[in-house]
Design a protein that fits this description.
By secondary structure, the chain is mainly alpha-helical. It has helices at 40-49, 54-67, 73-87, 91-104, 109-122, 125-132, 134-144, 153-166, 168-183, 188-201, 208-221, 225-238, 243-256, 260-276, 285-309, 313-326, 331-347, 351-362, 369-386. Helix 1 (40-49) packs antiparallel against helix 2 (54-67) and helix 16 packs antiparallel against helix 17. The longest helix is centred in the C-terminal third of the chain and has 25 residues, at 285-309. The chain starts with 39 loop residues before the first helix and ends with a helix.
Length: 387
């Protein structure tokens, strides 16, 4: 595949959201450790939480851990250490105590939030996945818990629903942090694998389809065509009007000369969908117009390539000419389109127009620049022979 659409083919499929990690909130999912009012533990925690000086706070946490942090209170002590070290941006120490806390309380959702936060802030995508992977299991086991002794099943069901509802923001934070962390990976193959795994872990997440869309184009960048097709076709099965995947597949099939009827149908569907598309929040009119133009241009260029494959060069020229002005914002797409246009014109024996199209292709920095220049040399050679 000489031309790779890459992520530009799905501009607008998702909008990156900005988040800020704060104090974990929500009802407890995991072991509940009661703190008796007025107890030594209560007084110690009040003193720790009221201390602003980092050195003094750590000394008080150490004192609490050694004197009171026994049994289930070790959960409280480890949680204090986790939050302290995250605040100090000492993420390795936060991981150390977070792992200790998970050993004592494997289903501690608040700890999962903190560990994901630490991994996200540190930019450690391996730990981000490792800790994020724990969350679906934590939630599944919590939902499966039987009602405690003395609690009616209906009451327990209501309490569980309330706890899950109060933790929605925490769960959304985890999903978002994972999605953005994996999206920022510079290794295309790893990015694709991480985002695909994320969508498997959180199939109902608002970010799942976006993750699969980026994964498909990332597999394309990594030249893993089988996985690209698997993910892209799978996403279209879930979301038949996903413009990014319709473009990706119409481009691939038209370029390869495979499943041309499907490629044509997908490209035409994109044009129809774009006609009814509405501008998302946070996108300027200029950005929206550029995005719509580029996506329509990609669809028209794919249609033109289908036309060439089907030996309909007249229609190919029309589609390529319509696509050209729409693609000028992306040199790679524009260079390829004009190169294709040149061949369609050559097939119609319109050599002068073909030379102009190849000249336009060679005028921009794309993967087709050298190819267009080579074609232009054949025109020069042919002209010399005539003289």
């Amino acid at each position: 595949m000489k031309r790779i659409i890459g992520i530009i083919g799905i501009i607008g499929v998702f909008t990156l959201l900005v988040f800020a990690a704060g104090t974990v909130s929500g009802q407890t999912i995991g072991k509940f450790v009661p703190i008796p009012a007025g107890s030594d533990t209560d007084h110690a925690l009040t003193e720790i939480n009221g201390t602003a000086d980092p050195g003094q706070k750590l000394a008080l946490i150490d004192k609490f851990s050694s004197s009171l942090g026994q049994g289930d209170m070790a959960i409280v002590a480890d949680d204090l250490y986790v939050n302290y070290y995250i605040t100090q941006k000492n993420y390795d120490k936060a991981f150390e105590y977070g792992d200790k806390l998970f050993a004592l309380d494997p289903d501690n959702l608040a700890n999962a939030v903190n560990m994901v936060r630490a991994a996200s802030e540190k930019g450690d995508i391996d730990k981000l996945m490792a800790y994020g992977e724990k969350v679906p299991g934590i939630l599944q086991r919590y939902k499966a818990l039987p009602a405690p002794d003395g609690v009616e099943a209906s009451t327990w069901q209501r309490q569980q629903n309330e706890a899950l509802d109060s933790n929605k923001d925490n769960i959304t934070y985890i999903e978002q942090a994972m999605f953005l962390g994996f999206y920022r990976s510079t290794n295309a193959a790893k990015r694709a694998a991480l985002l695909t795994r994320f969508a498997q872990l959180f199939p109902d997440s608002q970010f799942a389809n976006q993750a699969l869309g980026v994964a498909a184009t990332s597999y394309q960048q990594a030249q893993n065509v089988p996985k690209m097709l698997e993910v892209a076709n799978g996403l279209l099965a879930k979301d038949p009007n996903n413009i990014g995947m319709l473009l990706l597949l119409s481009d691939y099939y038209s370029e390869k000369g495979e499943q041309l009827d499907k490629a044509e149908a997908y490209a035409k569907r994109v044009i129809v969908l774009l006609g009814a598309a509405t501008k998302p929040e946070g996108v300027t009119d200029e950005q929206w117009q550029q995005q719509i133009s580029l996506q329509k241009g990609l669809a028209l260029s794919a249609l033109g390539q289908v036309n060439i494959q089907k030996k309909d060069n007249e229609q190919a020229v029309q589609n390529f000419k319509a696509a050209g002005p729409l693609l000028k914002s992306d040199e790679g797409s524009y260079g390829r389109n004009q190169y294709r246009l040149g061949f369609a014109l050559l097939n119609l024996k319109k050599n002068a127009e073909a030379k102009d199209a190849f000249t336009q292709s060679a005028s921009v920095n794309s993967a087709y620049k050298a190819l267009a220049q080579a074609k232009l040399k054949t025109f020069d050679a042919a002209a010399k022979k005539k003289t």
